[in-house]
Amino acid sequence: MPELPEVEGVVRDLRPIVEGKTIKSVSLSDVVYTSHEAGKQAIVKNAKPSQFELLVRDMKIDKLERRSKYIFFHLKKDDERFILVNHLGMSGAWFVVTDVLEITEEKFRKHIHAIFTLASGELLVYADIRRFGELRFIKEIADHPPLLKMAPEPFDEIACDFFIMQSEKPKFAKKSIKEVIMDGQVISGCGNIYATEALFKMLIHPGKATNELSREQKTMLFRVICDVLQESIDSGGSTISDYRSINGGAGTMQHRLKMYGKKQCVVCETNTESLVIAGRTSTYCPQCQK
DNA sequence: AACTGAGACCGGGTGC
DNA sequence: TGCACCCGGTCTCAG
């Protein structure tokens, strides 16, 4: 599952290849078309597939930006600017190839949903096995209100104060700390993997109520989250199940995880336990985390 | 108005 | 071999 470090890796790999290039045309899969005809919106949001194909045509990819777990393709045509917002969902992946057969992993090749033909002749391909990802063409961020509610980037200097402020609101204070740090309106980009890791490092039980933590503990927890995210960025992200960097690349952070997916605590060897918090499996050590 | 919980979206993986 | 079920990031909508 791509979280902030994985998305950062994709953007860093994609940026030098696609920035400055022009999209000649886009072709969406039959699945996308059929879904829209059935009244759903697989992958392409807020536009009919045929409209989307026309909208993106001839746009220059001016800049790539990662914001939380989203990728913003800043587009430009004449003097007008637009944003193509992409979220990888559970299983989205980008490839840059000259022929889709170069995508060797069949499970991705079978689920190609958008092919952007660049003026350079390269194909920028979006594949998404579970179709939880999205491509959303907008004029500005305000066109999609949930984007306005995202917490600041975790490495932004105001992010820690923002986290503490949010965590003290009644809405969050009585929730479990795990649920709160995974909420994109509190901290950007921290999903299940890194929340699990950070709580283990801090020896905090994931079910602990947020208002039972002191400000000092919250500040330390925030630093630990940033450290874990940075360590993962430096390792190329965690390659778990369907996450791939561009062209199927893999990271190595999965080997450095100490609690996520573990059966035993690496410190005391006690069997780990898990709890479902906000719909997500939360693994923890009942001995170490209180 | 603001929050809460449920539902929706999916196919690979797992276990019976 | 087949099938039911589990899983999960985020938005939307009903209550």
UniProtKB/TrEMBL annotation:
Signal peptide stretch: none
Catalytic activity annotation: Hydrolysis of DNA containing ring-opened 7-methylguanine residues, releasing 2,6-diamino-4-hydroxy-5-(N-methyl)formamidopyrimidine; 2'-deoxyribonucleotide-(2'-deoxyribose 5'-phosphate)-2'-deoxyribonucleotide-DNA = a 3'-end 2'-deoxyribonucleotide-(2,3-dehydro-2,3-deoxyribose 5'-phosphate)-DNA + a 5'-end 5'-phospho-2'-deoxyribonucleoside-DNA + H(+)
GO molecular function: 8-oxo-7,8-dihydroguanine DNA N-glycosylase activity; class I DNA-(apurinic or apyrimidinic site) endonuclease activity; damaged DNA binding; double-stranded DNA binding; zinc ion binding
Keyword DNA damage: yes
EC assignment: 3.2.2.23, 4.2.99.18
GO BP terms: base-excision repair
Formamidopyrimidine-DNA glycosylase catalytic domain: residues covered: 2-133
Cofactor(s) this protein cannot do without: Zn(2+)
Gene3D superfamilies the UniProt entry points to: 1.10.8.50, MutM-like, N-terminal
Limits of the FPG-type domain: 258-290
Keywords: DNA damage, DNA repair, DNA-binding, Glycosidase, Hydrolase, Lyase, Metal-binding, Multifunctional enzyme, Zinc, Zinc-finger
Magnesium keyword on record: no
Pfam families in the cross-refs: Fapy_DNA_glyco (PF01149), H2TH (PF06831), zf-FPG_IleRS (PF06827)
Protein name: Formamidopyrimidine-DNA glycosylase
Gene source species: Solibacillus silvestris (strain StLB046)
Organism phylogeny: Bacteria, Bacillati, Bacillota, Bacilli, Bacillales
